[in-house]
Amino acid sequence: MSQLISREFVQRLAPKGVSFGQLPILLCLWKVDSITQKVLSEGVLIEGPDVLWILNRMECDGPVSRSRSTTDRHQVGVRLTEKGRGLRGALVGLSNDVYRAALDGLGRAGQHVLDCLLVRLIRNLERDTALIE
């Protein structure tokens, strides 16, 4: 299921010049326009080195800019550029299209059951992760 949804996103994002890995970063930055790289990594649940690689690419392509803090050289701020802000409408619509396609034919009751089951699975996995740590 995850691979099918990922593939659908990859195919739809490619013409927009955005990779699937960039989407959670953009979603986060659309909520909070300026954030440190570390907080961003924690917020999108992607390891620091992977976020760094994705941000390097995004900075080259133009949707984000980064700047080192003037008070703490270890902190790097990440913010959207005009290009990054401009992607919001198209990519939110694209995301909604993917989810509508995935949920097609379920009806409201089926979607509610699926939502409840997914919430339960997430809580189970979060609890299991907490026990391991």
Quick rundown:
The protein is mainly alpha-helical. It contains 7 helices and 3 strands. The chain has helices spanning 2-13, 22-31, 37-44, 48-61, 82-86, 88-103, 107-132; strands at residues 34-36, 64-68, 76-80.
Number of helices: 7
**CATH classification class:** Mainly Alpha
Which segments are poorly predicted (pLDDT under 50) over 5 or more consecutive residues?
Answer: none
Number of strands: 3
Count of folded domains: 1
Strand content of the residues, in percent? Answer: 5-15%
Q: What characterizes the major β-sheet?
A: 3 strands, antiparallel
Average pLDDT, to the nearest integer?
91
Tell me roughly what share of residues is in helical segments: 55-70%
**Order of the strands making up the biggest sheet:** 1-3-2
CATH topology title: Arc Repressor Mutant, subunit A
Class per helix and strand makeup: mainly alpha
Order of helices and strands: HHEHHEEHHH
